[in-house]
Every structure is written in C-alpha cells, then in structure tokens.
Amino acid sequence: MARKKGKTKPRTFALDDSITLAWLFEDEADAYAEAVEDSLISIAAVVPSLWFLEVANGALTGERRKRTTEAKVIQFLSLLKSLPITTDDETSARAWQETLQLARTHKLSVYDAA
Question: Contact, 54 vs 16, CB < 8 A?
C-alpha cells in the first residue's frame, strides 16, 4: 500500500508493561511482543511513570512464583535501562481528564490508557 503524502512513521509509541514482561517470561513470548522489542531499534517508546512500578512488580511476582530468578530480573532491568524508553511526564497531570476519557472511550483500564 502506498503511503499517503505527508504521512510519516511515528517516532514514538506507547509501551505497555504486559508486552515488556513478555520479554522476561519465555512462556509469554509471542511474535507481537518480539516485533515490539525489535522496533526499539528505530523507534523510541514512551511509558507512563507507573510503568516502572508495574514492571518491577511483575518481575518480582514472577521471581516469587519461580518463573524467573533474581539474577535474570537484574539482567532484564539492566537491558530495559539501555533501551530508548522515555517517561511521559504528564501522566499525573492528565490522569483525571484526558486519560480517564481515553479509557472510557476505548474501554481500557486507566492504567492502560495512560
């Protein structure tokens, strides 16, 4: 399909913690999660400030359930630090208005809409 004039590829995309955690847990890996990870070579991800806590909590829960080890979590978090992932500094400022409305409109949780 030909690209319409004036349309450009996005330079950032929103990254969800569930996709991120699929990179850690082998039983959750799929083609979509791998494609998202591969896209970080050329496109930066944007995450809400809550993402860091969600990822840390998911990794710790997996560790406690023996799905991974402390060493693998440490290595995984080090990898995440090296990726082009930036924090949306407006998460809290938009939570009670735009984000809430986005969640309503698209039937998402407020966390996912952020």
Answer: no
**Each residue of 35-84: pLDDT tens digit?**
999 999 999 999 988 899 999 999 999 999 999 999 999 999 999 999 99
Residue 29: both structure tokens together: 């890996």
Which run of H or of E encompasses 92? Answer: helix 91-94
Contact 12, 45 (CB under 8 A): yes
Rounded distance, CA 27 to CA 31, Å?
12
Please state the domain extents for the chain.
12-89
Tens of pLDDT, residue by residue over 4-25, are 555 655 688 889 999 999 999 9
**CATH code for the domain defined by 12-89:** 3.40.50.1010
Q: What is the spatial distance between Cα 14 and Cα 113, in angstroms, rounded to a whole number?
A: 10
CA angle in degrees (0–180, nearest 5) for 83-89-90: 135
CA 3 to chain centre: 27
Q: What are phi and psi of 94, to 5 degrees?
A: -100, -5
This prediction's pTM: 0.77
